[in-house]
Write a structure and sequence with these properties.
This protein is mostly beta strands and about 300 residues long. The chain has one domain: Jelly Rolls, CATH 2.60.120.10. Strands 2, 3, 4, 5, 6, 7, 8, 9 and 10 form a nine-stranded antiparallel beta sheet that branches. A hairpin with a 4-residue loop joins strand 11 and strand 12. InterPro entries: RmlC-like_jellyroll, RmlC_Cupin_sf.
Length: about 300
């Protein structure tokens, strides 16, 4: 790990732990949505999909009104309104509510409809239990076989008070350092970082690794270089070349464990990247005050 001493990530338990290095590794995934046609397109909305081992990201450009429905949804899923000019009406059995602006919406299992109006970017996060959506991912073929070093998906405990529609403001003040804005549910953790202007200082990158989960980095604006490095093992046949992969918005990158990685904003204007984890991260959840809605969603007792 390489964090500055003032960055609280330097105190994470994983920053000091050194488990045994596995012998085999999977590669990264990069899906740039402008390079492929939308899977779903109407007069008002265009949608693309990309996936990781446990999750699917749906990215939509909206100009007008669109209804996004799920029938017999097996688990909680997330809708992210990424722009201020969006409004959503959420309908689930026994409840209906409306939200506007940058908001994280957690939708319960079962039947639901999220009707969104306005102009902007909408993201949906579903687990691969939603097999119909997983099959639409541009990189679905890459996961025909399970990727290495990722344990089977296990949802986190049910929310306090049971499943219902929950909404969270994505404009509240983030943590100070790192400037994270973290929310979780039973299936996902979302780190909705604020946009930045101009390139990242190349003298202040933060290379780090995860031992047993993928990181999904979604570029909403600008241009980034994702730097990745895999361990060397005794078997040279399993070595992988370093990677310095440039992506432009909108894009999804899936970073595999246990690659050393950091993402560098290089665009001259606005750069905006958010991170998604499925299921939620234990290390971030163990940090007091880091997860803004921890009172709604308890962490598992057993690790």
């Amino acid at each position: 790990m390489a964090f500055e001493s003032t960055d609280l990530r330097s105190t994470l338990p994983s920053a000091a732990a050194a488990p045994a290095t596995p012998e085999r590794f999977s590669g990264s995934e990069h899906v740039q949505f402008r390079d492929v046609p939308p899977v779903e397109k109407t007069e008002t909305i265009s949608t693309w999909y990309a996936r990781g081992q446990n999750f699917v990201v749906g990215y939509s450009d909206l100009d007008g009104t669109a209804a996004l429905s799920r029938t017999s949804q097996p688990d909680e899923y997330v809708v992210l309104l990424a722009d201020d000019d969006l409004e959503a009406r959420v309908e689930a059995p026994g409840e209906e509510l409306t939200v506007s602006g940058r908001t994280m919406i957690v939708v319960p299992p079962g039947d639901s409809t999220v009707t969104i109006t306005g102009r902007g970017r909408v993201l949906r996060l579903l687990t691969t239990k939603s097999e119909d959506i997983a099959a639409l991912a541009a990189n679905a073929g890459s996961y025909a076989e399970a990727h290495e070093n990722i344990p089977p998906f296990q949802p986190w405990p049910d929310p306090v008070g049971g499943f219902r529609v929950r909404t969270y403001d994505l404009t509240v003040a983030p943590l100070a350092n790192p400037p994270f804005r973290l929310y979780r549910c039973t299936t996902f953790m979302v780190n909705f970082i604020d946009p930045k202007q101009g390139p990242r200082d190349p003298a202040k990158l933060s290379p780090h690794k995860h031992d047993d989960f993928e990181q999904c980095s979604i570029v909403l604006a600008g241009e980034y270089v994702h730097h990745l490095r895999w361990p060397w093992t005794t078997n040279k046949a399993n070595w992988r070349e370093d990677e310095h992969y440039t992506v432009v918005a909108p894009s999804v990158t899936v970073i595999p464990p246990p690659s050393l990685h950091t993402s560098e904003a290089v665009g001259a204007g606005t750069n905006h990247l958010i991170d998604v984890f499925c299921p939620p991260r234990f290390d971030f959840s163990d940090m007091e005050g880091w997860v803004f809605n921890a009172a709604d969603y308890p962490a598992p007792e057993a690790r």
